[in-house]
Specification:
By secondary structure, the protein is of the alpha+beta class. Helix content is 37%, strand content 37%.
Amino acid sequence: MIWYIVLAVAAIIGIIVFIASTKPDAWTIQRQGTIPGVPAKVFPYMDDLHKFQEWSPWAKLDPNVKLTYGGRASGSGANFSWEGSSKVGIGKMTITESRPNDLVRCRLDFYKPMRCTNTQDFVLKAEGSQTVVTWTINGNAPFLFKLFLVFASADRMMGENLERGLANLKTVVTG
């Protein structure tokens, strides 16, 4: 009887590992939001990392998070590091490319709870008197992350944060 239980558990683990191995090696999560105003009005909230904190969906998760700013105040090279509770972890965000009123690209280095490096793009496009902001986060999917994806949807979990962030951005920009 115990032998059958051991075989069943091994089969379940094997199936989970097989499903995880079929997951893609990279992932992308993307959301769009429309903000009243021209791109020049919206752009500073992504390009200036101090302003980013005004609408970031993660800023309110830990009111005691320690932020340290470095580099320039805005644009390529601007960065900040954070150290907080398990809800926000420890990491660093650096602007790697900044094209006024068009694009802000960032490198996201996470140190805790799990080490990884992702990229984040904010693309702005004028549509009449509004700006469409497309927020995209990309990353590699190591095997442990693939195992996680067997049981959860990263798009649903992280996508909710992006949607909340874009709603916060709209509120901040429109005052």
